[in-house]
From TrEMBL, chains A, B:
The keyword Membrane applies. Residues 452-565 form the STAS domain. It is found in: Membrane. The lineage of its organism: Bacteria, Pseudomonadati, Pseudomonadota, Alphaproteobacteria, Rhodospirillales. It is a multi-pass membrane protein. Signal peptide: none annotated. The chain crosses the membrane at residues 20-43, 63-89, 101-122, 177-195, 216-237, 268-292, 304-322, 342-361, 368-386, 398-429. Keywords: Membrane, Transmembrane, Transmembrane helix. InterPro entries: SLC26A/SulP_dom (IPR011547), SLC26A/SulP_fam (IPR001902), STAS_dom (IPR002645), STAS_dom_sf (IPR036513). It comes from the Bacteria. The gene is sulP. One of its GO terms (cellular component) is membrane. This is Sulfate permease.
Length: 586, 586
């Protein structure tokens, strides 16, 4: 029972020395990676650097207790930080207590929403985000994030939530680029690129084992941080206009209630929902990929509760919205993390850093953090995916391209909403014109097949139609018109039989359309029948007393229908003579 | 060619005396019905009474030229008037020129939107409004409209866009009810009810023909109007606090450009879209019902252009949004209208009224108009539909009930948006868990059937699964998890074969899910195969080089797959011995 409430108990019971060793090593490596990242993502979210550290402590412990992945590393991530900046930026000014309070409230709402979704077992709703929309959203967010960091690398003031605003704002300030800042920013960027691309192979050539080489390469950002701090300190670059992180309060996060302001909550709620859903979808796909490698299983609803409790923890300890990060989870996994204890240890590591190391970051140039972000998010940008999707499906591509265009042109929230809406509408449009076939009798048998594909015999007075989809609101009216047109196009037609063998459901809209169709056909002197209606559908039609509306009958098999409505043609078609081709098809 | 641009030409060419007689009679009856209605609906929309008359002239002529129904009667209608009041009421105060300008701009936007939808042939998008949502919306609007008119019948000041606001506002004023107003309002309401219910049978008993009786009964509102004008005039009730319509400018509508204010347009656009779609859906279903009775055909896209041009005409002549009205179209049809000329003649009739009769309406009590509205909208309220829908389908009922609750509790726009969103989400949820069957071989045949329904033979190492739906974003992740769980649940399983005979499409999300599934199963030591993939789907998979990801193969038939993966079981199952039941199913 307690394990259902607190899934973390399960791994704690099984904990041993081997797990401890794996977890401890992974925690050290992830901590080293996470310190610059958490400072950088706080900067991206428009928050003081310590907020990034706070968001990397309690949430990790909370996820360890409630989450279902053994290796997912939770904390501030790039896309969610960008979305936080967009959501909070509309309500408050960067640097004010209101801004910080709104970010904390956003974590609270996001946490409540995620936990509620999980407890209500609504995890499957996240599947309404189609892959191309998510992929386009991530790519466009990556571009937007990289563009938003250029100001720090150039040492100028700029802002904006769309690519156009950012470029315009940067262009206006291009005269006031700060040379030393640019040198540090560009240098750090190039260095981090080199580390990412070339250091690991180089180390392996030099005799490092592949895992050690990888871990060393992951420490690149830390090296850049240390080097640029020393540079600024030694050359007194702060006085030359290089913006630094400045004083970071030393100590553990403040435990406090988030702002209890219903008006603020109402304004933040839509953003909180979007952030939660995007964060969850990203996180759960990372978790699933890693889980499969160890033949473990991710429970989407438990994942929701896990991520939700992480966000609640963030909101109670001065943090901001968090989720599972891709790069850091892979590092955690590769470094040998066995259980969520690695996350708890990472939280302790970050806690130590917050207690002891923050004075060292005072002279850390913002340009270095920006370089870290730029290099990190470039891996999010997946341009080839656009081409692949174009080749695979034009309508998926349309949803993807619209998402990218809207994110870049109108901001993250407009982008994700557009993408989701468009992918749903395109799907409904697609299924609103279902496949439909006129069928005829296969000579010498009781089978009926598409007249376009088989040599079959059709009745001159009975139109036999098969619809290969459930009847529901999006296709009801189209089918109504189509069937009516087909029935009245041939003046000899007296009966229409709709074959329902592929109809799994008829919703209320389709029922009304059928009733309208029966009436319209009746006015035109044509009777309407059904055949091969499935049991559950028939039950529904009976409840609605549909038979009372019907001008015709409901037949068990389509052969029965034809035999009753046009016995002559049916008898001819069923005979052996027909099978042997002696009687021509009419 | 000209007929394609101006469909009205067609009926003009065929026009003769018989058509003229029918149209003229219908026009007289509809005009008599429309005069009080147009004044009343303008009142409902918060506009001066003459605006209702203006909206009943030029739009009718425009529809006659561009619309596709021969008998649809266009003009101000109750639901659209309510939606206009809700949309414009947010931006301006009733009675100001800004309010009137915004209503005119709303007609312009609605016209442009409808014409654009028609030219782009997007009429089918209206099918995204499911019938239960429309029905719930109309019912709730009827209740809201009736409640909004109570203030006129009671002679008090009240307002609000939701039922709660209205009731609270009425309750606060209940002390200041005006006796004479209540007497007139209640009297008119009771009289109109009696006319509606009992007058026609009474007249028929008295020897009137059914059509004459019907037409006479339809003149009930006019009788109420005349009687109450006389009452107010003779008893000088205006001085006793009975609110009257007051001066109505005499003359034809002013021809002028609508307000050219992009900021206003932007604010009105969402409302214009909602009004257009609701108006179109209502109108087209009336038009189709009437058209079927004469074996005519309604072209949804031409209907859009027709209604759009009617709204453009309204916006150029000081009117407000219009659409086809149910009651008046039926009256028009029953009175023998043959062509859209009846609409043109009705417009002329209203024009004459505007030129000559408006001074007579000066003493018309608002309470009488309110009574007209209340009695008219009660026919919109369809409570039994709630019960029918509940019995027929719980998810349709949920969408319907949510729509009603939101319209009453949060207003018309929130209501329609909620209903549409909910019906789409419920549909996606429904189709996100498609029917799926484990299949086995029918002994002695090469056929495969559901293991739950047939006595079949299954392979101990091969899991055969058939999915009865296209694979797309809403079901992709669920299927991925389900298939993975089923495959790893039985440790003996080495191969999974997905039978794709019912899969008409695989979208990009489902493709990625399949790739992820192949990888996850691969990590678990299980190979993944496909069988019976349709041609177009196979082409798509080839374009995406899916085969390269596959750990297994693509088989033409499922029998081929089984024969290759588990030849022993397959051979046993195919043999005659199996057919005769000598070998037991494993």
């Amino acid at each position: 029972m307690i394990e259902r409430l607190l899934p973390g108990i399960a791994w704690m019971r099984r904990y041993d020395r081997i797990a401890l060793q794996g977890d401890a090593l992974a925690a050290v490596i992830v901590t080293i990676m996470l310190i610059p990242q958490s400072l950088a993502y706080a900067l991206l979210a428009g928050l003081p650097p310590e907020v990034g550290l706070y968001a990397s402590m309690a949430p990790l412990a909370a996820y360890a207790l409630f989450g279902s992945s053994s290796t997912l590393a939770v904390g501030p991530v790039a896309v969610v930080s960008l979305m936080t900046a967009a959501a909070v930026g509309d309500l408050a000014t960067v640097g004010t207590p209101e801004y910080r309070g709104a970010a904390i409230a956003l974590a609270l709402l996001s946490g409540v929403f995620l936990v509620a979704m999980g407890l209500l077992r609504l995890g499957f709703l996240a599947s309404l985000l189609s892959h191309p929309v998510i992929s386009g959203f991530i790519t466009a967010s990556g571009i937007l994030i990289a563009a938003s960091q250029l100001k720090h690398i150039l040492g100028i003031e700029a802002g904006g939530h769309t690519l156009i605003e950012l470029i315009r704002s940067l262009a206006a300030q291009v005269d006031s680029i700060n040379g030393p800042t640019l040198a540090i920013g560009a240098g750090a960027t190039v260095f981090l690129f080199w580390v990412r691309r070339s250091l690991k192979p180089l180390l392996m050539k030099a005799g490092f084992g592949p895992r050690l080489a990888d871990s060393t390469a992951k420490a690149g950002p830390v090296a850049a941080v240390i080097a640029t701090i020393l540079l600024v300190d030694l050359l007194a670059l702060g006085e030359a206009g290089v913006k630094v992180v400045g004083d970071i309060p030393q100590g553990l996060p403040p435990v406090a209630l988030p702002p209890l302001d219903p008006a603020l909550w109402r304004e933040l709620l839509p953003s909180a929902v979007l952030i939660s859903v995007v964060g969850f979808v990203e996180s759960v796909s990372v978790a699933q990929t890693l889980a499969a490698k160890r033949r473990e299983r991710i429970d989407a609803n438990r994942e929701l509760v896990g991520l939700g409790s992480a966000n609640l923890a963030a909101s109670l300890t001065g943090g901001y919205p968090v989720t599972g990060g891709f790069a850091r989870s892979v590092v955690n996994f590769d470094a040998g993390a066995r259980t969520p204890m690695a996350g708890v240890m990472t939280a302790l590591g970050i806690g130590l850093a917050a207690l002891l190391l923050t004075p060292l970051f005072q002279q850390l140039p913002k340009a270095t953090l920006a370089a870290t972000i730029v290099v990190a998010v470039l891996s999010l940008i997946d341009i080839p995916a656009l081409k692949r999707t174009w080749q695979y499906s034009k309508s998926d591509f349309a949803a993807m391209a619209a998402t990218i265009a809207m994110v870049l042109g109108a901001g993250v929230e407009a982008g994700i909403v557009t993408g989701v809406a468009l992918s749903i509408v395109l799907f409904l449009v697609h299924s609103s014109r279902p496949h439909m076939a006129v069928v005829g009798q296969v000579p010498g048998s009781h089978h009926f097949r598409n007249v376009k594909r088989h040599k079959v015999i059709t009745s001159p007075t009975v139109l036999s139609l098969r619809v290969d989809e459930s009847l529901y609101f999006a296709n009801a009216r189209w089918l109504e018109d189509k069937l009516y047109d087909m029935a009245v196009a041939d003046k000899a037609i007296r009966d229409v039989v709709l074959i329902c063998s592929a109809v799994n459901d008829i919703d209320a809209s389709a029922l009304e359309s059928l009733e309208a169709l029966v009436e319209r056909l009746g006015a035109a002197g044509v009777s309407f029948h059904l055949s091969e209606v499935k049991g559950p559908v028939m039950d529904k039609l009976k409840r609605a007393s549909f038979a009372g509306h019907l001008t015709g009958k409901v037949f068990l098999s389509h052969y029965d229908a034809l035999a009753a409505l046009d016995p002559d043609t049916t008898a001819r078609a069923s005979g052996r003579a027909a099978a042997e081709g002696i009687i021509a098809t009419p």
